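Wait, mind explaining this?

_____
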Amino acid sequence: MANEQTGTLTLMSQHGCFGGNVNIYSHPSEQCQCNMTFAVYIPPQAITQTVPVLYYLAGLTCTEQNFITKAGAQRYAAQHGLMLVAPDTSPRGDDVPDEEGWDFGSGAGFYVDATEAPWASNYRMYSYITEELPALIQTHFSVSDKQGIFGHSMGGHGALVCGLRNPAKYQSISALAPIANPMQCAWGQKALGKYLGADQTSWAAYDASELVKQHAQSDRHILIDQGLADPFLEQQQLKPEAFKAACEAVGQPLTLRMQTGYDHGYYFISTFMEDHIKHHAEVLCG
């Protein structure tokens, strides 16, 4: 079924997995003005019924492949009847602006809608994730109206931002080693400054530690896991303590688990994947 056209989607590959299928699709994106790629795990339950959708946003330098091949999430998604959707982390292509370096541009869309040239025409990952991609999933797959969102590192930042700003769309949120206060770290300052410009008042719309002050929800519990051996924690890129303090100040329920011996990579992610899938399934599959 590789390269099969399905409306606006092109099926690039398909693999059986835990009674369901891992499919990779590409499609022309209106938001990003280029072809975008995403992975879907279709659980066996979707053959006979609609199922909830759980979106996973990956981190810097990643594509749609990292999560779907390394996280070990399909086993748990099949158990609970959750569809997994893992998009790419940025627009890509010969006509898409880029620059040297791994923490900005290609593979580093930061899940924002850029406003500055030359990025504004393509780097609209926030609207792609919250509007265009869910509309495609609703149109082409057997899904219910229940959605959750989670992610890792830059993707953890994206999940917190998308989830906090859109409580009606995402009933559950979690993150693994998220960039939780990007206005106060080097990665975030570089990305937000280049994508959004020098006026930092616009940056707060993409900073979870600022957003939670206005978008706290007492009935939606957020789960975060952070490895204590994570080098980026020591480098002050992640700042989970800032997000925890902001949650405590406004009464946002949060479980922040600091995990001894774990670093920033997919060995860490796969270790706690079952807990995160269960966290979402308790809300979405109840």
Observations:
- The first helix runs from residue 65 to 70.
- The chain has one domain: 10-285.
- Residues 10-285 form a domain with the Rossmann fold fold (CATH 3.40.50.1820).
- The mean pLDDT is 96.
